[in-house]
Specification:
By secondary structure, the chain is α+β, with helices and mostly antiparallel strands. The protein is 32% helix and 25% strand. Bound molecules: flavin-adenine dinucleotide. Flavin-adenine dinucleotide binds next to helix 1, strand 9 and helix 8.
Length: 413
């Protein structure tokens, strides 16, 4: 049996895949629901491809969402396409903007179809149970009081402030995050420009199309939120308008700081993602910078890689620490490289100011624009990620495959 702490994208996807493969799995989620405003709403082509591989893509796309095939930006005064997904070789040549609660509710509902899947909401994991240097379960508080869950494997998918990784004594290296992000919403009009990313006057403004409104994120200097707040909401309005003057007629919809949510950006990575009996995945193993909106997608890729590696050994009782080490080896490289590329993109998008303080397009960005190969590489990076994973675990409930077939699941390295 596998016990997963955290019902975010990583935990629910892993839970779904294991239950689909006939493994007993219990997901413990501390919140009562999946309602999260201003959370990762970008479902990239790589995640949509995974949904296709498990046969639930069409149903997922029946959930409310917007499709973005080209991510457009205005860097300084220059308009450009930052990510053109129209030529991808994947089934979906677009990214879906879907509220995370719809996505997570959908995954949970699909997982619940399988008899070996369990999900306990309002259940907060507090500690690990350790015996002879091995993690053998967790302690948690739920609506009915304190519980203890014993498991062959505990997975920490409890996000970037992971309690479990801290309890396990795993060490994270801070990669550094120079800024924070303020999130808010503004109404959307039919004749609004379709730019997605604006970079000007030292700030980056992201506008995510949520149908009737824009979900807006604006970068600020690290730790400067209190100082900005002290200057009053007018300063924030000004920062938005410097980048997107067309919002002048409605910027006052952001009335006060209650309409604004601060995301403290963290970028880190665990040195070791596992201990005997414990594996960390998703943000619990590596918090990502929001640039490119790849956090959800990396979490899903971790879950797929983990399921591919552990489903067979969990089914036949041969799971050992070596399997967990293999998962880290497989996913560490894409994570490291993604964090490096994110840092490079951050510097390029925010870099280069002319005398008026307006941003000009830095030369590497212009180079990327002018040659099709780097542009293709950038599209692959942002849409599919590095080393996209493919689902190798069977759906044992379909009747064709049996539990025994799990031992034949290919282990990839
Ligand atoms: C404001 C904001 C905006 C973002 N925007 C984007 C975006 O547009 N695109 C994108 O791809 N990424 C975005 N991200 C990042 C993205 O949300 C994360 O990278 C992604 O959700 C990671 O998935 P996860 O499952 O690893 O962790 P999380 O999504 O953090 O899920 C962890 C889950 O564990 C639960 N939990 C925590 N502690 C416990 C505990 N002790 N016991 C039980 N449950 C627990 C939490 O309630 C949560 O449900 C954003 C993040 C933030 C904060």
């Amino acid at each position: 049996m596998c016990c997963i702490a955290g019902g975010g994208p990583a935990g629910l996807m892993l839970g779904y895949l294991l239950a689909r493969a006939g493994i007993g799995v219990l997901v413990l989620e501390k919140h009562a629901d999946f309602l999260r405003d201003f959370r990762g709403d970008t479902v990239h082509p790589s995640t949509l491809e995974t949904m296709h591989e498990v046969g639930i893509l069409e149903e997922l796309l029946q959930q409310p969402h917007q499709r973005v095939a080209k991510v457009r930006g205005r860097i300084g005064e220059t308009a450009m396409v930052l990510n053109d997904m129209t030529r991808l070789s994947t089934r979906c040549k677009f990214m879906a903007l879907m509220p995370q609660w719809n996505f997570l509710n959908f995954l949970a509902e699909k997982a619940r179809r399988y008899p070996t899947f369990g999900l306990k909401m309002q259940t907060e994991v507090k500690d690990l149970i350790e015996e002879q240097d091995r993690i053998v379960g967790v302690r948690a508080d739920g609506p009915g009081g304190h519980i203890e869950v014993r498991a062959d494997l505990v997975v920490a998918a409890d996000g970037r402030s992971s309690v479990l990784r801290e309890r396990a004594g795993l060490i994270a290296d801070e990669i550094g995050a120079p800024g924070d992000v303020l999130w808010m919403r503004l109404s959307k009009r039919n004749d609004d420009p379709e730019f997605f990313v604006y970079a000007n006057h030292g700030k980056v403004l992201v506008l995510l199309d949520r149908g009737e409104y824009w979900q807006c994120g604006i970068t600020i200097a690290k730790g400067s939120a209190t100082e900005i707040q002290a200057k009053g909401i007018g300063g924030l309005h000004g920062g938005i308008l410097e980048n997107a003057p067309f919002l002048r007629d409605r910027v006052a919809e952001i009335r006060d700081w209650n309409d604004v949510k601060l995301l403290t950006v963290m970028v880190d990575r665990l040195r070791r993602w596992y201990r005997p009996g414990l594996l960390c995945i998703g943000d619990a193993a590596h918090a990502m910078h929001p640039i490119g909106g790849v956090g959800v997608n990396l979490a899903i890729q971790d879950a797929v890689a983990a399921a591919n590696m552990i489903a067979g050994p969990l089914a036949n009782g041969t799971l050992c620490t070596n399997h967990l080490a293999k998962i880290q080896r497989r996913r560490e490289f894409p994570t490291k490289l993604t964090q490096k590329v994110q840092a490079m993109m951050r510097r390029q998008i925010a870099g280069g100011a002319d005398d008026s303080g307006a941003r000009i397009v830095p030369w590497p960005m212009r180079l990327l624009e002018s040659t099709s190969l780097p542009r293709r590489m950038r599209t692959r990076f942002m849409s599919l990620g590095i080393r996209p994973e493919h689902v190798k675990t069977p759906d044992v409930w379909k009747g064709k495959s049996t539990r025994d077939s799990l031992s034949a699941v290919l282990e990839t390295d």
